[in-house]
Write a structure and sequence with these properties.
- By secondary structure, the protein is an alpha+beta fold.
- The protein has 24 helices and eleven strands.
- The strands form three sheets. The protein has a six-stranded mixed beta sheet, sandwiched between helices. A three-stranded antiparallel beta sheet has the order 8-9-10, with helices on one face.
- Strand 8 and strand 9 form a beta hairpin.
- It is globular and about 70 Å long.
- It starts with a helix and ends in a 7-residue tail after the last helix.
Length: about 550
């Protein structure tokens, strides 16, 4: 009798486990998703409406406070989607993996080609919100002031993660006890060395050094925004000066703050010893924000595309994502969002595999190279389908135009084929119509117009304004130089190219082309000068 009893027990255990698995899967599928939309955010929420509204109001107030205080420049913010789970168990399947195991996090932020995503659980709201705010601040800085020093980027995020609101009243700057303790007990980085820290520096990457760097970044930023320099506009001046490639950092520092590095270091230590760390307060009316928030039931496919994107990015499972997207597109062949998503998946699949140690791409075999080329071809087709299906995402059109333009082997004096030019213009015009502050789209349009046989004169005022507004400098400057070339302004063409190719943060391809173009331009200038010198003077001169 014992054997049958044991067999029945095992069968019962298997059935119980299967039932539990089905319940877990069912619980995920049965989440009641709703879309909560404000002016600058879209939330896919599985939690209650009150908390969903509160987070969006908080983020809208944070954004307004930050931009009003510091950054009043033209820029494009990527569309931002927040996924808010009700419980940690609902969130866990979407958390990042480390060595195949879930890496517990309160929340995370992911920048993306077509928009950024944030995810969190309402179960640990305050901890998760602090993480989300910190990373969202990096996103805002990346949009409005890319290229600012690392200390300022981290200092702003550390400072603003303390953001709190009560009705119309908002504040930032509450003292960070951990940073205060670190600064009191540790040796500081000398100011000049501190200001030069980059993302590749030991003080940004090594565990025994990073705490001092973050603490100093927080204190310096706190001093500028909440301390002695509050409301003096010094930080705004420094941001603008630090983004100007013609102004050395030491000069930008002294002209903005009225003191050199050593004097500032003494002022900061005095600020720390005083122990008076005021908060910065402002009034951001919440009623107009609340009025614009709309809540609607989520379409099941829209909700799945959002959560599937989280899994794709966090778990890097390209095969799973591609299979499910193709299933969705069989039932919804005109879903522009799914086509754009599939483009990202196929593009990721076209990249070289990592080597066994994970440190560098493994050398692809001939078969792998063919597969990667095929994936890139399919990716481009997916992006074209997203455009054909009338995507409402400006980046879809701009990215497609960039890819097409990068395939062209263009040279000075050689024009783009008219049909290609018209196609590129159509995509870029549409991107700009969807998002008038899309400065990168204007930069590509500057190149397209400059290398088209017939350029559109009426477009140039807005193109020039946008190219000049972008920081760091974009490749639209090559387009401006090419237009000078077309109108025989060779000296001005050369001057633009010199400034552009030596500017920081210029991508390698653009820099190489600018250098080649400059060599040709300077060669023609020399020939023209030599020709002038060889012309005999007229009689009587």
């Amino acid at each position: 009798m014992s054997a049958p009893s044991s067999h029945i027990s095992r069968m019962f255990l298997v059935v119980l486990l299967l039932l539990q698995a089905n319940v877990a899967v069912g619980a995920e599928k049965e989440l009641k998703w709703q879309f909560v939309r404000s002016e600058h955010f879209t939330m896919l929420s599985a939690t209650n409406k009150t908390d969903s509204r509160e987070l969006l109001m908080r983020l809208e107030q944070l954004r307004t406070m930050f931009l009003n205080a510091l950054l009043k420049r033209r820029a494009r913010e990527m569309p931002c989607t927040i996924v808010m789970f009700d419980t940690r168990s609902q969130f866990e399947p979407y958390m990042p993996l480390y060595k195949g195991k879930v890496k517990p996090v309160g929340g995370f932020f992911m920048p993306g080609r077509f928009g950024s995503h944030m995810a969190m659980s309402n179960e640990h709201y305050e901890h998760a919100a602090r993480t989300i705010i910190h990373e969202y601040l990096h996103s805002l800085v990346g949009a409005y002031a890319p290229g600012i020093p690392v200390w300022l980027n981290e200092g702003l995020a550390e400072l603003y993660e303390t953001f709190s609101s009560e009705g119309d009243d908002v504040e930032v700057g509450r003292a960070h006890k951990g940073h205060l303790r670190t600064l009191s007990e540790s040796k500081w980085l000398p100011m000049e060395e501190f200001l030069k820290v980059t993302h590749g520096s030991p003080h940004y990457n090594e565990s025994d050094k990073i705490s001092v760097f973050y603490a100093q970044s927080w204190l310096f930023t706190h001093y500028l925004i909440c301390g002695e320099f509050a409301d003096k506009g010094a930080l705004g001046r420094f941001i603008n000066a630090s983004l100007d490639p013609d102004i050395p950092m030491a000069r930008a520092f002294e002209e903005s703050f009225g003191m050199d590095y050593k004097t500032m270091e003494r002022a900061l230590k005095k600020y720390l010893r005083a122990g008076k760390h005021s908060v910065r307060r402002a009034k951001i009316p919440y009623a107009p924000i609340l009025k614009k928030i709309e809540i609607t039931p989520a379409d099941p496919i829209d909700a799945e595309l959002t959560t599937l994107y989280l899994k794709f990015r966090r778990h890097r499972d390209n095969g799973m994502a591609e299979q499910r997207l193709r299933e969705i597109l069989r039932t919804q062949p005109d879903n522009a969002r799914a086509h754009a998503f599939l483009y990202e998946v196929l593009l990721a699949s076209s990249m070289p595999r990592r080597s066994a140690d994970g440190q560098a791409p493994a050398r692809p075999t001939p078969d792998e190279r063919r597969r990667m080329q095929e994936k890139r071809k399919l990716a481009r087709q997916s992006l074209l389908r997203a455009v054909e299906c009338k995507s409402d995402n400006a980046a879809v059109y701009a990215v497609l135009a960039d890819e097409e333009f990068n395939r062209i082997d263009f040279h000075l004096g050689k024009f783009i084929k008219p049909d290609v030019s018209e196609r590129l213009r159509g995509w870029l015009d549409h991107a700009i119509a969807l998002d008038p502050d899309y400065l990168d789209a204007y930069n590509t349009l500057a190149l397209v117009e400059a290398f088209s046989e017939e350029f559109r004169e009426d477009k140039w005022p807005s193109i020039i304004e946008a190219v000049k507004a972008r920081r760091p400098l974009g490749r639209g400057w090559i387009g401006l130089a090419a237009m000078c070339w077309r109108f025989d302004e060779k000296e001005q063409c050369a001057e633009i190219l010199r400034r552009f190719k030596d500017a920081p943060s210029v991508d390698r391809r653009a820099s190489r082309f600018a250098s080649a173009m400059l060599d040709e331009c300077e060669g023609r200038v020399r020939k023209k000068s030599a020709k002038k010198m060889s012309v005999p003077a007229k009689p009587g001169e």
